[in-house]
Amino acid sequence: MLAGVREILKPEDGMKLKLGLAVAAFAVAASGFAVANEDIIGLRKQAMKVNGQAAKVSVGMIKGEIPFNAEVAAAAMMLIADGSTEFVHLFPEGTETGDTKAGDAIWSDPDGFMAAGKAAADAATAAAAAAADGQEAFGAAFGAVGQACGACHEGYRKG
Question: What pTM, to 2 d.p., does this model score?
Fold first, then answer.
């Protein structure tokens, strides 16, 4: 059977076939990277949703809309602290495009981005500790969390 194929294909057809297969393999690999990048972007979005929900519960307790619970307040802040620590590592090269609000400064100023993540984590850790001292102390400490998160969003997020 292979001999029959060789008789039909000319030498230049073999090169065309190899080139075609190489292009097809590259296209499949590239689409795989695009899917992987969208998965990473999706993970970033989920991390921000968790931070947002933790902040919403915290603000509700500070405002008295949700009964204050020091354990819940501390846990919410530790979610933000841990999330901020890990979140900054979810921006590998190639994930700056796609369905993302990540700003260009994340890649052009990675040290600043890492510092912004650390500032948010440090503020959230301090607020977690303050929760043991009650609603008022927690509310005062939470202000720094809002400032750190806002500064990161302002400097490193699109629109």
Answer: 0.77
